[in-house]
């Protein structure tokens, strides 16, 4: 490994990495060479040099073009990461020189936005008024892919959903309590406590099957002695969920409590007094292992920890339990992979 690293540090050129990316996109050496403004013979020589460094071919030649093999996919992924990081470096340098102050890209799951991310962003902006801040709201799995590609500086979510959680640094931040909700047009519930069985005539809007909150609802249904609904509407979008609930009094859903509260205050949703038996999900700060956060990103993480509501913070015992759960999830994924 040391010899390979020395070879890469001594001989690898950015132009070669760009050629790999172009080959992956174009599936043709001729087209990739044209895109790179190189002759085909120069491109072929550059690819041969790369394959010599790794002592193995990176592409399979087929009727459909040049297709990366397993090693090729690995090298191309890191080539894209390096290219993205260098592009971000150039952008940051340009923005700092122009007085705009750089850029920070944050990914966050829905349940972390209202009570954790937004207050920290506002305080960060006060300290870095020239900083360009981008906030992406999506599922943890999709945002981890963007983190891998260098498009996000950090993610507020769950590392356990990754195929290999050990690739990331994960620091638990807060619990994510959940609420069962309906549209505001739904008649108020007369009971102080409603059972899931009481919602049998409602149709569920739920998270896709690969998401942790889908598994939590499945567990709640099982504990209540109920089967999962046969005809749910599946979406990971907060906007779609709220719009659907508002459109029909026959729909019900499960949302992070912090998100639900925001829409309840605006009289868009109504909480259903269902007492859930499962422990709250936990989310945290996810970064690339071995990566170094920029000063604004580091300050943002500090602000997150300082201003996360105390009743939602993860306690030490809870952190230990969370690590055990994540280790078990990772082990199950390895067995089924």
From TrEMBL:
Biased composition annotated in UniProt, kind: Polar residues: 319-329
Alphabetical list of PROSITE patterns matching this protein: HTH_LYSR
Keyword annotations: DNA-binding, Transcription, Transcription regulation
Family named by the database record: Belongs to the LysR transcriptional regulatory family.
Domain HTH lysR-type: 12-69
Name of the molecule in the record: LysR family transcriptional regulator
Pfam families: HTH_1 (PF00126), LysR_substrate (PF03466)
Superkingdom, taxonomy of origin: Bacteria
Annotated spans, Disordered: 309-337
Gene3D superfamilies for the chain: 3.40.190.290, Winged helix-like DNA-binding domain superfamily/Winged helix DNA-binding domain
